[in-house]
From TrEMBL:
InterPro entries: TPM_dom. Keywords: Membrane, Transmembrane, Transmembrane helix. The chain crosses the membrane at residues 48-66, 86-107. Gene3D superfamilies: 3.10.310.50. It comes from the Bacteria. This is TPM domain-containing protein. It comes from Breznakiella homolactica. The keyword Membrane applies. The keyword Ubl conjugation does not apply. Coiled coil: none annotated. Pfam families: TPM_phosphatase. Residues 122-203 form the TPM domain.
């Protein structure tokens, strides 16, 4: 998903992004920890599930057409000069393939895509994508292992908060789960900016409590919300 389209779906403006970035900067001024934020349109392309649903639809269409072999044969016979039985088979094949293609395209619509993708598969894909970004962006590489990532996957309607080992050794996981749940709820309700600002504030409180700023506080990660295309 293009960044401009993702920004629109999140109902955020460039000004909102600046406010979120400023909130991250303020939070990090009082801690040696780092806060990273990222959003992606979807964490996987889920082609297997879309294709599987399309094939099932095509098989069902073929099965439904079989009892109408006689009427279809007579209809085709009235259309062509030289009727041959293979024309009926070809007609069934074309209809089934056309339906398969249509269903495959249809299930690329996010609202319908969520209907065919198992919740467990969605959650695993989002966590995997979040973990990959956690490594790629360098959140894992802070000096005190005190980086924290807020990751939003829009199509799946999921948020993951991934904290490095230094944070997890001092903070209960339920505290992070509450942040993720509140952010997910805010996105669902359309209050994305406010929810992100609140999530940044909550993460900042944890980091300030456990990793207060020292004389020299080096910022090693990009501030603000990063929009990922895939």
């Amino acid at each position: 998903m293009k960044q401009t389209k993702l920004l629109a779906k999140l109902n955020l403006t460039e000004k909102d992004l600046d406010e979120i970035k400023e909130a991250v900067v303020r939070a990090e001024q009082e801690t040696t920890g780092e806060i990273a934020l990222a959003a992606v349109g979807e964490s996987d392309d889920y082609s297997f599930y879309e294709l599987f649903a399309a094939v099932i639809a095509a098989v069902l269409a073929f099965a439904v057409l079989l009892p109408f072999h006689g009427p279809v044969s007579r209809w085709i016979d009235g259309l062509v000069w030289d009727f041959s039985p293979w024309l009926v088979t070809a007609f069934f094949g074309v209809v089934s393939f056309a339906l398969m293609a249509a269903v495959f395209l249809l299930f690329n619509i996010p609202a319908l895509d969520r209907l065919i993708i198992p919740p467990k598969a969605r959650s695993e894909s989002v966590y995997s994508r979040a973990a990959r970004y956690f490594v790629e962006s360098g959140v894992y590489a802070t000096r005190e292992n005190n980086g924290i990532l807020l990751f939003i996957s829009l199509m799946e309607h999921e948020v993951h908060v991934i904290a490095d080992s230094g944070i997890l050794s001092k903070t209960d996981s339920p505290e992070l789960s509450v942040i993720a749940a509140n952010l997910a709820g805010g996105i669902k309700n359309g209050t994305v900016k406010q929810s992100l600002l609140e999530a940044v504030r909550s993460c900042g409180e944890i980091l300030i409590r456990e990793f207060p700023a020292k004389d020299k506080n080096t910022n090693v990660l990009a501030d603000g919300l990063v929009l990922l295309e895939k």
